[in-house]
Design goal:
The structure holds three protein chains of three kinds.
Chain A lengths: L7 H12 L5 H7 L12 H13 L7 H9 L13 H14 L1 H4 L2 E2 L4 E2 L2
Antiparallel strand pairs in A: 1-2
Helix pairs in contact in A: 1-3
Chain B lengths: L2 H9 L3 E2 L6 E2 L2 E5 L9 H11 L10 E4 L7 E4 L8 H5 L5 E3 L5 E3 L9 H5 L6 E3 L4 E3 L10 H5 L5 E5 H11 L4
Antiparallel strand pairs in B: 1-2, 3-10, 4-5, 6-7, 8-9
Chain C lengths: L2 H8 L5 E4 L3 H5 L1 H13 L4 E3 L9 H7 L1 H18 L2 E4 L2 H16 L1 H13 L11 E3 H9 L1 H7 L8 E5 L10 H12 L3 E2 L18 H19 L3 E4 L2 H18 L7 E3 H8 L18 H14 L1
Parallel strand pairs in C: 1-2, 1-3, 3-4, 5-6, 5-7, 7-8
Helix pairs in contact in C: 3-13, 4-5, 5-6, 5-7, 6-7, 8-9, 8-10, 11-12
Classes of the chains: A mainly alpha, B alpha+beta, C alpha/beta.
Chain lengths: 116, 175, 307
């Protein structure tokens, strides 16, 4: 199998995922060398996207620059997605909470971080 | 429909094993390379189901681009053979065929010698780096296999063994 | 079609709600505009679906937990049902997610019950399961019909060479959607170039798993073929695939020093152009990783040549 380095954008995404994790297993294992590393329900690589999904209801954020692009193309500045309808996100969060997604992925909705 | 009901629907009637009076009622996963797009969802689904990671290298089936043909993807997945070579070769008798006709490797008995890998015609059992034992497809414990559920282009098909054999024969051009 | 005719027809026509998804509003406003233009031009009662959320990518969520995937997707389905619309997806991923979810909920009443409990807790109406999910290609081919599309083509794009990318999820129902895509592209008058990598996945699904294989072995090979063959454009359906094309262009530019020059266009843009709209009408030249200047210039020269 090739030992190529992963591409930089991917590594950044992985680091973003690690950044929002409270317990860094790699670091903690230095103090507890016998503790077995386990894989949490949410893999590090997916955490950044999952956080955006949980917080904004969508994976891509529509910011000012995108709003300008939209206006240039002759569209409304704000898309009719959850970006304009904030209560849709609240409902989504209730469903996520109720379905046990937050609990199982160890997501803390107040802090916006994953425990593991 | 529950996954058991779904499997029953696909299963049909038991098939006689050639040369014996035995009948098997098992399903196999067959791959149609003409439909495969190489998206790798099957491997990712398998890797998450068994190892909680999206890294395809943890998957228990393997899809790769064909070395002879551009843009053509071939696969290797366990067929849960009627007479498994891996089972016959295992020096520790760690491999067994359970009542659901699933060929399994017992993690308690396996010593990681790799004979099964050598014996298998398509080298399916692979080394689990963490546990240092050999692992292979467990047909998702008789549930609806994840790889099959994940395949969007319909390249992976869940068929009774006889129909699967017919399909493979057709794909090979009647041979 | 004149406005009077359209008005008469709206009463018995179904109302279509356009489900945007994540990538479309953020990265492909030109495709969104072109889709709206084309649909209005063809006299469809086509509007936006409101309160849309992420479709919840089945590739990730179904593997993680099918119940979660159903619960989260059901919110979109319940919204569509409440708004009394037929849900229209242009993204193959969203389409498959919704299409499979509604199918699975019909098959398993227990799951439907579970999903409805979550929905009621969130203060929403329970899902009855009457909502219909359709792909935009289906809408064009089945509801509008090739006859009408061909009749509306006033500016055939003859002389434009394109490569096409269908996407894995569009193959969920066999060759139905890929065939529709080809027929619609042919109606615009473009010349389709076949390559060995036509069927290959864009690699988005592999991105979380193996970035090198995802970018270099899948999308990279497709884009390099397009560069080699010097085609004018790469036509796509799915906004998820576009996300991957966009990423690959940046990665190749930053890390490999290879600049691709084949613009990636949505098929609705080609339709809009063929229907006589100008590139400025839907902002074809804005916010793209690969500028479409060359394609627009070629279109202009071809048009002048015809006149």
């Amino acid at each position: 199998m090739s030992q190529e380095q992963p591409i930089k954008a991917w590594t950044k995404l992985l680091e973003a995922g690690r950044k929002i994790t409270t317990h860094q297993q790699v670091d903690e294992n230095k103090f507890y060398p016998l503790r077995r590393v386990f894989r949490p329900a949410a893999p590090d690589i997916a955490k950044a996207s999952m956080k955006r999904d949980f917080e904004q209801g969508l994976v891509y954020y529509v910011g000012d620059d995108v709003e300008n692009d939209r206006a240039m193309c002759g569209l409304d500045r704000l898309p009719p997605t959850a970006r304009s309808f904030k209560d849709a996100i609240d409902k989504k969060r209730i469903i996520l909470e109720d379905a046990g997604v937050f609990e199982k992925t160890t997501y803390d909705k107040k802090k916006g971080t994953f425990e593991y | 429909m529950t996954s058991e009901a779904k499997i029953q629907k696909n299963l049909g009637k038991p098939i006689p094993v050639p040369g014996t009076e035995e009948k098997v009622s098992d399903l196999v996963i067959v791959h149609d390379p003409n439909k495969c797009t190489g998206c790798g969802q099957c491997m990712i689904g398998c890797a998450y189901k068994h190892y909680k990671t999206f890294d395809r290298k943890f998957g228990l089936l393997y899809v790769n681009e064909s070395p002879d043909r551009k843009g053509f993807y071939v696969n290797a997945n366990c067929q849960h053979c009627v007479y498994p070579m891996c089972l016959a070769s295992c020096p520790k008798e760690a491999i067994f065929k359970d009542e659901q006709s699933i060929v399994r490797i017992s993690p308690m008995l396996c010593v990681g010698c790799g004979t099964c890998n050598q014996a298998c015609p398509i080298a399916i059992p692979r080394l689990d780096e963490e546990r240092k034992i050999y692992v292979k497809c467990d047909f998702c414990d008789g549930e609806y296999p994840m790889c099959f559920q994940m395949c969007s282009p319909g390249a992976l098909q869940l068929l009774p063994r006889k129909e699967a054999f017919e399909l493979v024969k057709k794909l090979r051009g009647g041979k | 079609m004149t406005t009077a005719q359209t008005k008469n027809k709206t009463d018995d026509q179904t109302k279509y709600g356009y489900f945007l998804g994540c990538v479309m509003p953020a990265k492909m406003p030109w495709a969104e505009k072109a889709t709206m233009l084309v649909s209005k031009h063809l006299g469809l009662d086509f509007g936006y679906m409101k309160e849309t959320l992420c479709c919840v990518r089945p590739g990730v969520w179904k593997a993680v937990n099918p119940d979660w995937w159903l619960s989260i997707t059901a919110q979109n389905l319940a919204n569509a049902e409440k708004q009394g619309i037929v849900m229209v997806d242009t993204c193959n991923g969203c389409y498959v997610s919704h299409y499979e979810a509604i199918q699975e909920l019909h098959e398993e009443p227990e799951k439907m019950k579970m999903v409805n409990e979550h929905l009621v807790k969130a203060g929403m109406d329970p899902l009855k399961g009457t909502v219909r999910v359709r792909h935009y290609l289906e809408l064009l081919y089945e509801d509008v019909g090739m006859k009408k599309i061909k009749a509306n083509v006033v500016n055939p794009l003859t002389g434009i060479k394109i490569m096409r990318h269908v996407g894995c999820h569009a193959r969920k129902r066999g060759d139905i959607l890929p065939n529709y895509f080809d027929e619609i592209l042919k109606a615009t008058g473009v010349e389709i170039i076949d390559t060995p990598y036509d069927k290959t996945c864009c690699g988005l699904l592999l991105y979380f798993s193996d970035s090198n294989q995802s970018i270099l072995d899948r999308i990279g090979k497709k884009m390099l073929t397009a560069k080699e063959l010097n085609v004018d454009a790469y036509a796509i359906i799915c906004s998820g695939c576009y996300d991957q094309f966009d990423r690959a262009v940046k990665v190749y530019k930053d890390e490999k020093g290879i600049a691709f020059d084949t613009p990636i266009v949505h098929f609705s843009e080609l339709l809009a152009l063929a229907f006589g709209y100008k590139p400025e009408d839907f902002g074809m030249m804005y916010c793209r990783p690969i500028p479409t200047t060359k394609l627009i210039d070629k279109l202009k020269t071809l048009k002048e040549g015809k006149q």
